[in-house]
């Protein structure tokens, strides 16, 4: 079990992801906006106070809303407890509220709970446990969970190694706009195999998508495939 400064930054990002989106991180929808699904006056006030830097007030408000079953409040209260924001850190209580939000089918809570076990932050590392939570979140369309699940299948971490399943989830994450997944999906199409037909044009398209988001290696691969396809075109037309 570890709690590094990197882990704390991760949890802070997770809170910002959910909180700063003005109660728009709809639980169980993979992060699609749905204010009515998650908002209530106390949670909305807590989000505003958190964004304004009134952390102690926000923590109390999130606690109250969490006690009434608001999943977003449960998640954000858990993050504040784990990070020690607005008061002393309480890892045990933080884990409890994070699990509540995950059990209530909040996809982002499920992803964060899984990542906690995958990384060994605040708990003993358990990739098998992580896999179950990533799968639950990924099935709801959570892009980060889809990528995490794909990585597990590719590495054989927390589950059996399965390149076909890895490709399935990489492609899902790529379609959701994840830059890393776009690059990896392109590489699957470039080399072919594991049930994936080799298709340089499709590979080039995925590399282009990743390059457009700033991936320099994907840009290089796009240029290489473009040149390769252009060179092959005259020979095919003869």
How would you characterize this protein structure?
This protein is an all-alpha fold and 238 residues long. The protein folds into 2 domains: 142 residues, Serine Threonine Protein Phosphatase 5, Tetratricopeptide repeat (Alpha Horseshoe), CATH 1.25.40.10; 70 residues, Serine Threonine Protein Phosphatase 5, Tetratricopeptide repeat. The chain contains 13 helices and no strands. The longest helix has 22 residues.
Summarize the helices and strands and which ones pair or pack.
Elements: H1 5-19, H2 35-38, H3 41-52, H4 55-67, H5 71-83, H6 91-103, H7 107-119, H8 127-138, H9 143-155, H10 163-175, H11 179-191, H12 200-212, H13 216-237
Report the average pLDDT across residues: 86
Cα Rg: 21 Å
Identify the CATH homologous superfamily of the largest domain.
Tetratricopeptide repeat domain
CATH architecture verdict of the largest domain: Alpha Horseshoe
Summary keywords:
238 residues; mainly alpha; Serine Threonine Protein Phosphatase 5, Tetratricopeptide repeat; elongated
In a nutshell, what does this entry contain?
By secondary structure, this protein is mainly alpha-helical. The protein has helices spanning 5-19, 35-38, 41-52, 55-67, 71-83, 91-103, 107-119, 127-138, 143-155, 163-175, 179-191, 200-212, 216-237. 71% of the residues lie in helices and 0% in strands.
